[in-house]
Amino acid sequence: MADFYLTMMRTAIQSQLQYRAATYMYLVGMVAEPVIYLVVWTTIARSHGGQVAGITPGEFAAYYIVWTLVRNMNIVFTPYGWEWRIREGQLSAQLLRPLHPIHYDIADFAGGKVIWVLLYLPIAAGLTFIFKPTLDVTPLDVVVFFVAIWGAYLIRTMNLWLLGMVTFWTTRGGAIFQTYMMAELLLSGRLVPLQLMPDWVQEAASWLPFKWTFFFPIEALVGHLSVTSLLGGLGMQILWIAIGGCFVWLFWRASVKRYSAVGN
Amino acid sequence: MLRPLRIGWLYFRLGAMNELQYRANFIVALFQSLLSLGVALVVLKLVYSHTTELNGWSESELLCVLGIQILMGGVIHAAIQPNMERLVDEVRDGKLDYPLTKPEDAQLLVSVREMRIWQAVEIVAGAVVLSVGVVRLQSVVGIGGWLEFTALLLLGAVMIYCFWLVLATGAFWVVRMWHLVELFEGVYQTGRWPIGIYPDWLRYSLTFLVPIAFAITVPAEAITSRLQLGTVLTAALFAVVLFAFSRWFWRLGLRRYSGASA
Fold first, then answer.
1. Cβ of B51 and A52 within 8 Å?
2. Which of A99, A222, B14, B225 has its Cα between 20 and 30 A from that of B120?
3. Smallest Cβ distance to A36: which of B54, B180, B189?
4. More confident residue, A87 or B18
5. Cα B57 vs. chain centroid, distance in angstroms?
6. Please, what is the average pLDDT of chain A?
7. Which chain B residue shows the shortest CA-CA distance from A19?
8. Which residue of A16, A20, A36, A200 is the best one to mutate when testing the B interface, meaning the one whose CB has the most B CBs within 10 A?
9. pLDDT at A261
10. Which residue of B has its CA nearest to A183?
11. How far is residue B70's CA from residue B127's CA, in Å, rounded to a whole number?
């Protein structure tokens, strides 16, 4: 199994390396989003004596710069990819293989991450130079962060796989995906650090998987979380991966029976 | 002078007839724009729950900016972007031969061929948001303000078109232009906020490199009585320069095109 993952990841690295220019276009488009949030909240903080809800411009900068790295880690096989996969009969070949298809997606995207993060580092350096974040981390923060970004990756893989499998049942999954994306934007800490949200939103977020894919990994590095909350957070990530994994397993068995391909 | 308009109108009717066959897409477009409008309004509420003004702009004024951004987004998605995406694809596949052999100006043809009328939902949504914003403004917008606004909005649309044409013309040199749309969409979101909040380097880039400030903030200034004569003149001058540049660049690119059969 480990062998399989290593080989898949190596192949993904090789193929991603070929498309550096395209990857850069994508990355620059992606960086626009956090830069906008950062500028808006920095402007507000400045006009309110240097902070909003206790967050200073430097801390906002740290939050949104780490955000970009976490966002990179959060890119997984999307539901739109599923539409293509099912429409074009791509799944037929995958079904013949001995391993569950999810392993191919996890390994493939995990390999791509290596290149994406490497290409992203100059952008992060540029952002750091421009926005001057304040960051003060302990070794434990760094360790937890590196585990947590992979936890976030797995949670999001499971969630989007579940959404993607809706395509087995309907061809109009787009509305569901977009609603999911909206909920994620508001409840994950992608839009703003959750402290800025009203209390009831924070309460709702703590019962949902979203915040463990954005807010927790970012806060692990830039926030001042206690050891208990750091390890507790990793525990929550494991819980959500397990829940997602179970649902994927069950839903997959039900869904794949509905699959039929023509002419492959 | 009227000929380009006639051709544009002809292609518009053709595109509309085509699109009318796919009525379900209307519901899809409607759902998408309602959802993104909802998110935008939530963000606006969130921002103004922590402050009363953003760099001197009140909530109603920012509602105007948001309306203009959505409206202009609708114009881009309905009329500009589909043409430019098709252009990039055709350059890559060598299919640009077809418009080039027609006895009309090639730039005109590649700019008017596609029309996604369902995206006009965004134009309507933007206009509604803008109206709500205007009604809530402290001051009344006079007829002069509306005239300036309309003129500047048209200039802005022309500038965005020129910018997209320059981007798409890049396809003559660089074959792999994936993610071009993502890149533009990402940058376009900056227009949701008044340009003045961005740091200098970004403000200049969003004015002269990507003309988002001219397309959104400047028309919004006309509505919110912040407009200065200098800005209007700069916008007009820059539109002329950009149009000339994009035309020159397009011709330069065209010379590199070798076609599929050549």
1. yes
2. B225
3. B189
4. B18
5. 23
6. 88
7. B176
8. A36
9. 63
10. B39
11. 8
